[in-house]
Design a protein that fits this description.
25% of the residues lie in helices and 36% in strands. The protein is an alpha+beta fold. A hairpin with a 2-residue loop joins β4 and β5. The protein is globular and about 35 Å long.
């Protein structure tokens, strides 16, 4: 079981461990973290407004122990208030244990409480088979494929 929570300064070392693993982060759109300053900046920017876009990040922790295992991301664009882009990352030692599915389910439950959100969008690297299986298994449909791009868009209509 997992819980979403705010990221805190003491999480910096764990975030660096998770996001600094080059192999584990090879499917992520940004470079791996290289130092504690990167992790602290990640924490400081967990709620970020850039023009019409608001990005909100939450820590993902184990309910039983409180241990941080990754993060979940919600990105809203005021130009398209009916959709939300989602994302998640988890530490390599937590792969293949059902946490990815649990995180996406929790994200979808959170979005369904938002009356104006009717669609969830998720980008996945074409080679990230595990993430693609999670998205498709939870009802996302691949909407955009490009031979020249490394990511595909997956969309889920919400009720």
């Amino acid at each position: 079981m997992i819980v979403f929570r705010a990221l805190k300064k003491p999480d910096a070392a764990k975030l660096l461990e998770i996001y600094g693993d080059r192999n584990a982060m090879r499917f992520k759109g940004s470079k791996p973290m290289s130092n504690l300053a990167d992790a602290k900046r990640f924490i400081e920017n967990q709620s970020l407004h850039e023009g019409n876009v608001h990005t909100l990040r939450k820590g993902v922790a184990l309910t039983a122990t409180g241990e941080l295992i990754g993060s979940a991301m919600f990105r809203y664009n005021s130009d398209n208030i009916n959709a939300c882009e989602i994302g998640y990352s988890i530490g390599k030692q937590y792969w293949s244990k059902g946490f990815g599915t649990e995180i996406v389910k929790r994200i979808l439950q959170t979005l369904q409480k938002e009356q104006h959100i009717h669609r969830a969008n998720a980008w996945s690297h074409k080679e990230n088979i595990a993430s693609i299986k999670i998205l498709v298994g939870l009802g996302f449909v691949r909407k955009a494929q490009s031979e020249n791009e490394v990511n595909d868009l997956f969309v889920k209509q919400l009720s």
